[in-house]
Design brief:
The protein is mainly alpha-helical. The protein contains three helices and two strands. The protein has one domain. Strands 1-2 form a two-stranded antiparallel sheet.
Length: 114
């Protein structure tokens, strides 16, 4: 016995359609293709998460902020379904803020010692 993928009721293994809701039951090939798509999306999601975390870590580390910004941009581009885009964007924003602070400090020091 198997269960209808739409209504969840028990149906015979050889039924192509559910006798209760009338929906066509997917073949094993269709189910395996759907599982592959889901698996691929999970891999993309994990990659985007790792790139976002690395982006923030490298951006906060002295001297490695360009690597963090690059990783953040790559993470934004790889994030097709929108997951973890915020995390990657934070890495880029932290880089921009850090670069602006560095520029302001450099200008102040140049003005003081010029």
């Amino acid at each position: 016995m198997k269960y209808c993928v739409f209504c969840g009721k028990k149906i015979n293994d050889d039924n192509l359609f559910c006798p209760y809701c009338g929906n066509k039951q997917p073949e094993l090939k269709e189910i395996s293709e759907q599982n592959e798509v889901i698996s691929e999306k999970k891999k993309e999601s994990k990659t985007s998460l790792v790139l976002g975390i690395l982006s923030i870590i490298f951006t906060l580390s002295l001297g490695l902020s360009f690597i963090g910004a690059i990783l953040g941009m790559i993470g934004l581009l790889k994030s097709k379904n929108g997951e973890y885009k915020t995390l990657n964007a934070i890495g880029i924003i932290v880089f921009i803020v850090e670069a602006l602070i560095g520029l302001i400090i450099t200008i102040i020091l140049l003005c003081l010692y010029a």
